[in-house]
Specification:
five-stranded parallel β-sheet, uronate isomerase, domain 2, chain A, 10 strands, 3 domains, TIM Barrel, three-stranded parallel β-sheet, alpha/beta
Length: 421
């Protein structure tokens, strides 16, 4: 028999189920402990995250970029803390995230919290701390971003004594360099003993085979859950140039043959202010038509797609209605704010039902899993609760077991099923 419900009761049930559900975070920039210093964690890393660095220069336009980057990280963190948490209330989403992390760790927030946090992290051990963060965030597994073109990371993968992998950290094979910087990628490939020929127009026939072999070798080594690339707003398909050729002749045939999904993050304009380094990227309106063409011409490839511009979201939802091999995911980067998450989640539920992935953390610092998922869950629960209340008001029997099933699908099942993970 249906459970008796009121709108408020439905919302409470949804809030509880979303809060308690275990998450598979499908895109992060985290690493497991085997990668040593590539895994960022702790309060100074939180405070020097590029969102906060950009905000610091808004608060202190007298600071020089060059002077800031010369400072030790601890001093950079002191500056961020003093300007954004002491002299001003930390109302931005990035600042509030730090406050949420401190509170979750039982470090009392407030102007004096930085030293309390440093005292805590002075004795923290990464293994136990990782366990604690996963528990506090309600996260079961995360997907890393693994780039074989990165010298430091490649050395870890090739090391014979890098230890056993942490099964909570799933690899993803990052291929940006092949698509957006073919000359640089070709140079790296040759340095890695790949037989690559071909100039600015892309690889020749032998080079195409060499790139596919490179992908196969790294896929066998990493066992990734998907291939991934971050792309500029002017990305097009079929497109022109070397990157388009590599995508068409190397990446997509390989993905189809090996049944790897392809995750495309479209819309980033790199380094509009290079002096800000990681904080210097911006965004632009992308071509949803390119995603439609990919989905249409490669029905054997599953595409996870997220776009950086808010103005692209409605068209991406409509495109997903047309192609079963297209899965919108997450509220990426500049969209990861409650007001926009609320809008995007409602739009997707209304157009796609339950067939999307509402969020990923994009975390670069381990601790961020806590705040990004706590904040996102609250908004997703709010929007989803309203939809179930509307459904109950229309006469549909809404039951706790159904809500639990649907929440699990949104927060882990859709990704795992689509990725065949």
């Amino acid at each position: 028999m249906p459970e008796p419900t009121t709108a408020d009761a439905v919302r409470r049930i949804v809030a509880r189920e979303v809060a308690e559900a275990r998450v598979v975070d499908m895109h992060t920039h985290l690493y497991d402990a085997r990668f040593g210093g590539l895994l960022l964690w702790g309060v100074d890393e939180l405070l020097t995250y590029h969102y906060l660095v950009a905000e610091l220069f808004r608060a202190r336009p007298d600071l020089t970029y060059e002077g800031f980057w010369k400072l030790p990280k601890r001093v950079q963190a002191d500056l961020v803390w003093g300007e954004l948490f002491v002299k001003r209330s930390p109302v931005s989403e990035a600042c509030r995230g730090v406050v949420t992390c401190l509170a979750a760790l039982a470090i009392r927030p407030g102007p004096e919290a930085l030293e309390r946090a440093r005292a805590y992290f002075k004795t923290a051990e990464i293994g136990a701390y990782t366990d604690r963060v996963f528990k506090l965030a309600g996260v079961e597994r995360v997907v890393m971003t693994n780039d074989p073109f990165d010298d430091a990371e490649r050395a870890v993968w090739l090391s014979k004594d890098r230890g056993e992998p942490d099964p909570r950290f799933l690899p993803a094979l990052r291929i940006d360099s092949l698509l957006v910087d073919w000359p640089g990628a070709a140079k790296k490939l040759r340095a890695m003993k790949c037989k690559i020929k071909g100039g600015a127009a892309g690889p020749d026939a032998a080079g195409v085979k060499a790139v596919r072999k490179f992908l196969a070798d790294w896929a066998d080594r990493m066992r990734p859950v998907y291939l991934a690339a971050s792309l500029p707003p002017d990305f097009d398909y079929p497109g022109k140039g070397a990157g388009a050729k590599v995508l068409r002749e190397c990446v997509l045939p390989f993905a189809e043959e090996r049944k790897f999904p392809v995750a495309l993050m479209i819309g980033v304009r790199k380094l509009v202010n290079p002096e800000l380094r990681l904080a210097g990227d911006s965004l632009g309106l992308a071509r949803v038509e390119a995603v439609e063409a990919l989905s249409r011409e490669w029905p054997g490839v599953c595409f996870f797609v997220t776009m950086l511009a808010r103005e692209n979201q409605h068209a991406l939802c409509v495109a997903a209605r047309k192609f079963k091999n297209l899965m919108p995911f997450g509220c990426w980067w500049f969209l990861n704010d409650p007001s926009i998450i609320r809008e995007m989640t409602a739009e997707r539920l209304e157009l796609l039902g339950l067939s999307f992935v509402p969020q990923h953390s994009d975390a670069r610092v381990l601790d961020q899993l806590v705040y990004k998922w706590r904040h996102a869950r609250a908004v997703v629960a709010e929007v989803l609760g309203a939809k179930y209340a509307d459904l109950a008001a229309a006469g549909w029997p809404v039951e706790t077991a159904d809500i639990r099933r649907d929440v699990a699908r949104l927060l882990s099942g859709n990704f795992l099923e689509f990725a065949r993970a």
